[in-house]
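Q: My labmate handed me this sequence with no annotations at all. I'd like to see what the chain might look like in three dimensions before we decide whether it's worth expressing. Could you predict it?
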Amino acid sequence: QVQLVESGGGLVQAGDSLKLSCAASGRTSSSYAMGWFRQAPGKEREFVAVSTQTMYTYYADSVKDRFTIFRDNAKNTVYLQMNSLKPEDTAAYYCAATRFFFTNGDSYRDTDRYGYWGPGTQVTVSS
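A: Here is what I predict for the chain of 127 residues:
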């Protein structure tokens, strides 16, 4: 069983930075792909970024060049460094894990591929 807990959310101004953390308990490390998703009020949960089992990273176009995902397998923790935040980045951010490996990186963008989710952390960006 894998449990995920996010932290690091908060209220910031446009242009600021935040770093989210996701601590995983249980047997994870490099055998799991770790992803970040977000959900704004009234919208569907959407893919943000993923670090795969082979350490490849994929990003949503909307965050590419602003967000960076990285992981510390020794600490069972994955991070999301968010720079140049915009009001449209406001959402609840969720950490997710999957033990399935996909050769097609686009497969990691689908929420249905993930079996483990954290409770989420709120990020609010004011203009």
